[in-house]
Structure prediction request, 579 residues.
Amino acid sequence: MTAAPRTILDPSGERSLAERSRVPRPESLSGLTVALLDISKPRGNVFLDRLEQRLTDVGAKVRRYRKPTFTKPAPVDLRHEIATDCHVVIEALAD
Amino acid sequence: MMQVRTYVLHMLLPDGLVVVVKRECETCQMVVPVLEQLAATGELTVYTQDDPSFPERPAAIHDADLGVSWHLEIETVPTLIRVVDGVEVARTVGWRRDQWHEVSGTDELGPELPAFRPGCGSMSVDPDLVDELRARHGGSVLRSRRLDIAALEDDLEFMFNRGFTDGLPVVPPTEERVLKMLTGTTRTADEVVAVIPPDLVEATVEKVAIAAVMAGCRPEYLPWVLTSVEAACNDEFNMHGLLATTMPVGPVVVCSGPGTRAIGMNSGINALGQGNRANATIGRALQLLVRNFGGGRPGEVDRATLGSPSKYTFCFAENDLESPLGRLADDFDIEPGTDAVTMFAGEGPHTIVDQLSRTPESLIGSMAGVMQGMHHRKLVMAFDAILVISPEHGRVFADAGWDRKRVLEELHARLVTPVADLERDAHGIAEGVPHGFEGSLPKYRPGGILMTYAGGGAGLFSALIGGWVNGDTGSKPVTRAVRY
Prediction:
C-alpha cells in the first residue's frame, strides 16, 4: 500500500508575479491624451460618445480605439499603440 | 528470449556479468551453482532483492531500495546481463542454458540442471510496490514545485484550503499518482501541450496529468484529457473568452471512436448525466486545469452571471458504433474509426420532447420548433448548437431512409424566419436582430448545427446544447484526433 500522501505537486502555473507601480494619478486631465477603448459590445459607443464629450469639455484630447471582439484580450499591438500615444486609458466594459 | 535494452541509468554498471536474484524464487535458488561457476571464471556482480544473505556464495549486493532493479527494468528474476564499458549489451531472463551460455560466453553451465526453467516476478514490478518505486526512482522527471501537507492537516481539506477545488473534493496529486497517470501517454512529462488562459502560461504534460489526477482520471483517460486541452486552448476555440463571458456556458467535450469504448465511456443510458468515471473526470480535468493552472476562477476572470452545473464537467461519448446518422467527428474531416474529441462552447442540455411523431417530417418539425427558440427566438445566426439525437428519435429518421445529410438539410430548411418577425421591437419585444435586414434569416449559420447520436434505448427525447457566441467574435468548434 502507498503511504498516506503528505507531499503533493503544485497544480498552479507557479508564476512569479511581476510588481509594477502605477503611474501617478494626474492632477487634471486638461491637455492630456485620453484613450477610449471600445471592446465591441453593443452600445458601448453610446457610453463612450458621452465620455468623449465630457472629456473634451475639460480640455482633454481624446483618441478612440476598438478591440476586434469583446471575447478576446486586446491585441498586443493595440495595447502598445495606446500606451505609446496616450496618457490615460478608459475601457468601456459591458453587460 | 535474449533482449537488449536501452535505458537511462544513473549509475555505471560494473563490467562483466550482472545477475539479479531473490531468495523467494526457486529458479534463483536452482541457479546458485551456476553463479558459483561464473564467479570462478570472470567478473560477476550479483544483486539480491529480498535476502542480503542470499546467495551465500558468491556474495551478493543487497538491492534494498530496488533502485538497481528499477533502473535496469528487471521484470523477471533471475536476469543475467552482460555489460561492456558500463553499458548493457545482452540479457536473458529465467534459466535457459543455451541463452546463459550465449550471454556469459561460458559453456557447460549447470550440467545437472534442466535445460529450461522460467523465472519469477521481480519485486520491482510488484503491483503493491510499483507506484512507490516509480516515485522514488523516477520522480526526478517531475518539475512541479512540491507542496508539503502539515502533519495534522487533512489532505482533502488542504486541497480546499489552497483553493484547488471546484467545490467538490479532489484527489491529492502525489508523485506516485502523477507518475502513474503519465504512464497513460507516450508523450514526455515536459512536452508543452498548450498555453492556458487566462494567465497564458505554457502547460506541460505533467501539469495536465496533475489536473487529471485531481479530477479522478485513470491513466488511460490522459490522452483524451490532453487532446481536450489542445482543442480548447487556442485562438479558434477561445477558451479565454468562454471562461470570461457572463453567459452560462463552458467547454463541452464530445468524444468519438473505438477508444471511447476501450476506456469505458458512456454513450448510452444517461450519457449526458452522472455516474460514469471517464465521462465525469475528462471534462472535469480540463476545467480544473483552467482553474488551477490557468488561474480562471469564478468571480475573478470567470464572470458568469449564473453559471451552469455543466461547468463542473460536461463530457460524453457519441455512439458512433450504432448511429444510423453518422458521427459528428467525421464532419470535421476525421477519418472514420479514428478517435477524436470535438470541443464545443455550450450550455447544459435542453430537452426536446416529442413522443407522438412517427414520421420524419413530424419529428423534424418538433426539433426545429425547439431549436428556433434557443436562447431567444428572435436572435439568429449568432449561436451554434449541438443536437443530440437519441436512439428512439434516430430510428424514426432511419426507418424512413433519412440519413445524416437529409436530417440536417430538412432542419435548416425549417429554421428560416421572416425578418419582420425577428427585428427589434417586432411583436412588442425589444430584443431581436438589428433593423436593416430584408427577406428571411436562418436561425443557424451553415454548419452551425452539430449533430450527434447518444442516449439510452428507451425514451422519445433528444437534447439541444445551445452554444456561446460563434465564429470569429466568439468560439468555433474544434475537433482533434486523439494523440496517444
Observations:
- The beta strands of chain A are 7-9, 33-38, 61-66, 88-92.
- The CA atoms of residues 8 and 14 of chain A lie 14 Å apart.
